[in-house]
Target: HTH marR-type domain-containing protein
Amino acid sequence: MSPPQQVGPTGDVPARAVSGGDASGGDASGAVPDAVPGGLPDAVPDAVPDDIVEIEQALSRVAHMLARHRLHDRTVAAAGVPVDRAAVPLLRLLADTGGPMRPGEPAARLAVEAPHVSRLVRRLEKAGYVERVPDARDRRAQPVRLRAEGRDAVERLRAVGRRWMHEALASWSEEERRRLAELVDPAGRDRRAPGS
Model:
């Protein structure tokens, strides 16, 4: 089988796609996404605890670092997976869910517009990473699922990310890493905005 094709120019991410669909949740400037699952709170209190301020600043710095084009370029090069930044969250989501998903589902999960997901699916399908499957309940629907090549691509991307994360936290103790995972995991899973 021929190697996967390049999925769009690296970093060629529409503004709305970056603001809602980037792996870091923001663009390279660290901007807050336009679309946030659950919506934003109606009012932000004038004063917040100092620890909240510190957490927000720390996570913003991490998001900015993860959103840089250069880091993405290094990751895909090391993994041998020629995809642009906008495609990575969709590939990861399809890998995590396992089964086929209609285009509207990942759009809602990634907080991006459905047409953006449809364009990504077409590019990923052409590259051989995903495929459309029939829906017995709705012949017009075309759910999407990862092909074996897509699952392999996600695993290679994750392997590179995990290796670099291990190097970045080399000076941390196992207990410190475990504690970080315990604190970060619930925050990542609960994507609802306060007051939603």
